[in-house]
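[audit] Reproducing an earlier prediction to check determinism. Same input, same settings, fresh worker. If the tokens differ from the archived copy the diff job will pick it up downstream; this log only records the rerun itself.
[audit] input (75 residues):
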Amino acid sequence: MKNKRFVFDTNSLISALILPSSVSRLSLKKADEIGVIVFSKETLDELNEVIIRSKFDKYVTLEDRLEYVQRLEAK
């Protein structure tokens, strides 16, 4: 049973998505491997609001961004 809990802010979650070699991506992956990632409703609401902005189109498609949020929400 994974008993460690990890919390990430919205900025870290976005960095983890758009920058494959970022510290945020590596941290999120490691946290998922050894523990449970937890989110506040406010963080998920902010992520849903920010992730649809067109400025992220050059990094990741909108479809992939929305799928990413769905995967996080399912945790």
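[audit] rerun output stored. Observation attached for the diff report: The first strand starts at residue 5 and ends at 7.
[audit] end
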